[in-house]
Amino acid sequence: NPNYPKMEGSSGLQQVSCRAKGGAPGFKVAILGAAGGIGQPLAMLMKMNPLVSVLHLYDVVNSPGVTADISHMDTGAVVRCFLGQSQLEDALIGMDLVIIPAGVPRKPGMTRDDLFNINAGIVKTLCEGITKCCPNAIVNLISNPVNSTVPIAAEVFKKAGTYDPKRLLGVTMLVVVRANTFVAEVMGLDPREVEVPVVGGHAGVTILPLLSQVKPPCSFTPEETDYLTSRIQNGGTEVVEAKAGAGSATLSMAYAAVKFADACLRGLRGDASVIQCAFVASQVTELPFFASKVRLGRTGIDEIYPLGPLNEYERVGLEKAKKELAESIQKGVSFIKK
Ligand code: NAD
Ligand code: LMR
Questions:
Q1: Which of 126, 135, 157, 249 has the highest CB neighbour number within 10 Å of its CB?
Q2: pLDDT of residue 69 exceeding 90
């Protein structure tokens, strides 16, 4: 009925959107651990992303409720539910991007490495599914300890003969998001205009903000440098303590994960100059993995940038970071090799 008013922003009748299923242009994305603290807001934000045509939500519990809820949002992506190990492979078939926030979070007093014993096995199983069902997908690994889970994923892929280092990215975006926020606070700037490169890894001293390379250029007093470096390195712990046993960062993490996933999808689409920091297989240092700025393209990582000039404070931080990182990487590699 042409006289029947169509509401602004509505896709119209349910029947119309059903017919359109599968037809929308865009990428196919799976979230593994979609019913968790990160998984739920991440699923919601990915459903709002116009680059996503199909969104698979997989978890070992509660994915039906999350899927039913999110599928009612009137955005383009078709949402499908997958529950339990027996549906993992169906969740993964044909995916362009797989985002993994599955695993246990920290409680006060724990380090990220304390999560290794549980999360290493979870990441191994999920990555084995990826080798079988979507070996060419880009993988965004969020589960902690990222410094060890990324090497675990690499070893699983190597074992299966599907490893492409350009497609495996440990998500360190949250630390960049925090660094932008904290630097903006100190300097009285708009956080949306601040860019802080954060390199190294994703735990304690391995998190190395390069304050000498902040954009727009800023100069910090030694006190400001100490305060900012420590706050950025301990931002995760700040949230864990504030949540007092109810988990770690979930909402800011979902925001950061979507910012990063969107960058990966824009790279896949062929956009130029998509640059973010991530923990990847790298030759930037003597370590096999390291977080630094990477350029994202049609096949994943197109270029890994060198660290650039560091000041003395950052050079000392780099040595500390490398020592701890080497152990965490080795721990992940041996978990699969032994
Ligand atoms: P959560 O406990 O709220 O959610 C985890 C989800 O994973 C749950 O729904 C659980 O059912 C699911 N899960 C467990 N085993 C699974 C399996 N085998 N397959 C699929 N799903 C499985 O935890 P959260 O707060 O969402 O955090 C998840 C992980 O992300 C933790 O390891 C946390 O440390 C990490 N994290 C990383 C960053 C980062 O910056 N990279 C930031 C925040 C949290
Ligand atoms: C974070 O940085 O918030 C995450 O790595 C979660 C944590 O345990 O701190």
A1: 126
A2: yes
